[in-house]
Amino acid sequence: MNRRIPESRALPAGTCGAALATAPRRSYPRRVLPVALSLSTGEVILIVVVVAIPISLLTFVLGAGNALKQIGKGQFAVEYDSDLPQRISDSSPASSREARQAEIRQMLEAKAYRQRTRGEAPLDVEAELGKLLDDRQAGSLGVDRGLVEEVRQLVVARNERRIRQGKEPLEVDKEVQRQLRELENLGQ
Hints:
By secondary structure, the chain is mainly α. Helix content is about 60%, strand content about 0%. The mean pLDDT is about 75.
């Protein structure tokens, strides 16, 4: 493949270009693997993906798998019931009753103050406090007739189930009262 450079492009004598003109020209690239010539772009992309997927899965399983185990962990995580803060209760029930009355009074005074600032007739704090405390002290068992009836139906259904199982039935009125007491104490 010796081509001769036309005279118009030839460099003047005595320059470095003369050495280049006489040097044999290399074909670029020298050697190309026959396999690379036969692969299309789509095939190369598929090969890269097929090779990258197992490598990435292996990396994920060995390295990032531990990161998944750490999700939800840390200084604020609650794993066991013992991690939860324990319930704080007063030692004497009388002080808790007084504290409850003070909180109710404070809430009613705030409500009366808001009504006064809006120009409405303010709430009579003492009368409202007496009414709320009388309701609480009388006990809320049996106040809601719908709730009492629903609990009674549940107790009757439970008794029917117990009889079918061969067990002794429960006394309906006592069981209704017990269930209502449990429901009343749920929030405390």
